[in-house]
Amino acid sequence: MEGRAAHAAGGPGNAPLVGRRDALQRIDRALDAVEGGYGLVALVGEPGAGKTRLLNELADGATARKLPFVAGRAAEFEQEMPFGAVVDALDDRLEEHSLDLPPGALRLLGTVFPALADLSGDPPAASPESRVARYQLHRTVRHLLEALAEPSGLVLILDDLHWADDATIELLDHLVRHPPRARVLLAVAYRPAQASPRLAALVDAAGPQGARVAVEPLTQSEVREFLGPDVGRARCEALFKASGGNPFYLEALARMAGGTAPASGAGLDRHWEKGVANLTEVPPAVRAALQVELSALPPKALLMAQGAAVAADVFEPALASVAAEMDQNAALTALDVLTGHDVVRAAPGGRFRFRHPLVRHVAYASTAAGWRIAAHSRVSERLAELGAPAAVRAHHVVRSARFGDAGAIRTLLEAARAVAQQAPATAAYWLQAALDLMPDAAADAYPDRVELLVELAQVQAVSGHAEEGRETARTLLGLLPTDDTVRRARTVHMCAIMERQLGRIHEARALVLDELRRSTDRQTPEAVLLRIRLVADRIQRIDTRGSHAILETIPGSAPGWGPGLTAAVAAMRPMVAYGRGEVAEAIERAQTADRLFSAASDNDFADCLDCFAWLVFAESFLGMYDEALRHAERLVSITRTTGQTFVLGYMLSGQSRILAQMGRLEEAAAVADEATAVGRDLRSKEVLAYGLIQQCLTASWMGDHERALRAGDEAVANDTGSGEWWTHMAHVARAIAVINEGRLEEGATALIAACGDGTLGLDFSTLVICAEALASVRAAQEDGADAANWADIAEAIADPLLTGDAGLARLTRAHALRSADPAASAAVAAEAADRLTKAGRRPEAGRAELAAGLAHAAAGDRTRARDRLRAAAEVFESCGMKGLLAQVVREQRRLGVRVPSPGTPARGAKGRKDLPFGLSPREHEIALLVAEGNSNQQIAERLYLSVRTVETHLSRVFGKIGVSSRVGVATAMNRSE
Q: How confident is the model over 755-783, as a mean pLDDT?
């Protein structure tokens, strides 16, 4: 070894850091910013560039600031392990930390973190009762970080994320988009060439809270400083050229005896060179240097290094000795040699890890293929003896199982089913491995190949790998005989949904039609299942003629139909009738569907669950909000219980739309966030756009214009050009957000383009909403003639049977009358407010009250203006519509009304003057119940609220009190009493 590299061999952290001034400054700024809340810093650089060393400096900086930190890393040979880096970072901390989280949250976290597994209780992870959307797990981990950050903050360090599994990246994406409400810094490192697009986009998604730090090679002068004064200038230049300024490469080359790397293959075993040949990003000289370093070890030490490389990224000596077939004493003696040569380094908990992943790679590659298989088998058997769960053993089983090994197949299936809900990509990997081990003509000792393929296709679909799921489904179709019509129909139905989510709408339709051509009886349950799939496709395009034609040939029921299929057919009819303008028939059809849906059990809907999304949307268009919400909530529950999360996004979007129309905007926003998260997890532009549309509209009415426009822009960017309802709706949502932000002309132009002549594929209800928005813009621009034109259009479209649409049409007319006849405008707006209130559309009723107040003021009737504005303020405050509430307050002040700023309790207000921390009465009530030890579920039941509403209020309580845990709330409330 040469210069300072020789000193570095004594252990980590001995060599002083060279260069990196800019990177260290940015790290310091990120640590300082933690005082203000959440932040993200990403260190990005090539292998060996020094990312890990900079993360160590970040950890030292956190310690100096008395900020607790936890650290973990993903591993090259365990890339399929769910949440590997996060578990590595947090699991030890969870063993030591008492968590004040509800039992349900601990149960859910116990499916991921071994330290909490004993607390998880029943039901077990793979049971239907425990199946939840990944979004719920992500949200629970966010709450976990908030709890761990109390009271001093937390730095979560995750290294080598280019090797992280899909579930980890999904979790990080959620944390970036929904940051913990606490002093949390997330510090990550990865190689850019190996990073997934979603990982690489984390910093951009974090916005101003994110920082990307490029870890560049050392300059030639820095290399000279790194090597020290004992190394001559010519040698420094040679090493700089050979290493490219990469610190790890430089160190590896400097460790070589004599300071020169051998030529490729010189004096080395051929299987070593072949084993590291795939390290293409590493210069050949460096690969050779690492090989020489390990080959120079004593034989026992090399064997122990090879066993450790097989055992785990962070390994226990006992398990490494099993892999190496060494007795305990010999293994520990060899471990001393490895630490002395700085091949491995001590890790917490009596474990060890290699000094760098590249060293582990070379140690693993130095083994012969047969020895490697046997070593993994020994580790798997030892873990089984210790009672390790299948998900822990699966990694080694995959690498050691023999073809036809029934025991290995069972282990892989058990592991896959245990992680399917939280990490479906890993489940798919293990299911595929199990299938690969099965003989084609499997005996009774093996599972049913067809059923496994169905299971595989489903987890591939929900993991965002619909392309692979589609291929699996097509493989399954090739295996199923033509007379197995039931399973073929189910497979085609599932495959068609995946084709749609991939944007292949025509292929999905062709697949269904091709299967129907094989059917001799179009009224069998399996044939009807496919036919209503065609109806759903036509509904998306608002093709009422085509969808009606198909439905006309399908009876209300037939022999062999179950209650679920009967209800599914009925569920399609209201939307088709509504699209044809037959509102009375649509309402009657919806009532029939409601009765059938309510009478059927959850299990009856297994094959046709997606059809009921159209019942929810039809009911929302028809103003049947209570029925729609009841159906949406049940559908979401069934979707989660059955694991069909590939249709969950549609259900959640419908639920969010209903909640928003009813004025429950905070709940609508939370559901829209989950719908968007589901779309991202599925990697489906269509499903993502459904969620983004609701996210955009809800945020806009809540006054969060920046968030609304960001969601609207992304929704429009996902427009595939299919011309379906959701593609037009994306443009409508963004245009409305632009109008609400105050860019009236730009928004109006965009909205007119989105609506076209009214035949572009939008529903009647949305068209009335657009006409009202445009009339409002023209009235504000004092263009009464054009406002009147939009009022005419709204009145022509709105059906008198739909109280909400009729009320909105009257509001449109009130806008048109404002400048010419303000008194008449006020009267019409008041009428609109009454109708909209009766319809349950509270946000729009509030806007009608505001319009009436403005018109009364323009007519000189200040008393009525004040009354109407007060009514509008009450609606906007209760719905959380901050932007419009602020507008009302301004108008009230113009009329001489003394009102506090929005969000500030009135001085002397009844029930508020003595409440601590500025809590509202409802927040105070919930805080007291938390202090009494009630869970969110218990509070929801006691106050007749949804759990999500309780969570929303509780997050405000945290902010006002200045704490981030329930313990903090209880402590503060007890002190204030």
A: 91
